[in-house]
Amino acid sequence: MVQDQDRRAGNAVLILHPHPESVGVARRFVAEVCIASRTVPTLCESAVLLASEIVTNAFIHGRSDARIAVAASHNQVRVEVADDNSRHPRRLEPDADALDGRGLAIVDLVAASWGVRDDSIGKTVWFEVTVG
Questions:
Q1: 122: region left, alpha or beta (phi > 0 left; psi from -120 to 50 alpha)
Q2: Cα(37)–Cα(8) distance, rounded to whole angstroms?
Q3: What would the pLDDT profile of 49-81 be if each residue is shown by its tens digit?
Q4: Which helix (H) or strand (E) holds 40?
Q5: How is residue 37 annotated by DSSP?
Q6: What is the dihedral of CA 102, 105, 106, 109, to 10 degrees?
Q7: How distant is the alpha carbon of residue 125 from its chain centre?
Q8: Alpha carbons 14 and 28: distance in angstroms, whole number
Q9: Which residues lie below 8 Å from residue 115, measured CB to CB, with a gap of 6+?
Q10: Which of 80, 69, 67, 73 is nearest to 9 (CA)?
């Protein structure tokens, strides 16, 4: 599940294998970095929620390991999730009865900013949550 990790106050990287438990590991990882950085609790909660959505998308659509990087301070958290698939995510307008398809809408609503960066292999989806 967890291949490698590097944790330093405020910055951390974790590599996850596509396994059902890995999304929970990612949530705990983001929370631990936020706590170590004394991040405002509401920002931490938002970062954990959004990381869960983005890591889940990486596994479902990227079909590869996910690399999650977290940079946190008292009033800002930036999370980057990379996978090996170059196809960019797109926001859907799901039917009211749909069980999925709302992840990017949630990211769009909660994050101060977010985007996608092309990498030499695959892509990185990133978001930032901030105070104010």
A1: left
A2: 9
A3: 999 999 999 998 888 999 999 999 999 999 999
A4: none
A5: T
A6: -160
A7: 8
A8: 11
A9: 125, 126
A10: 73
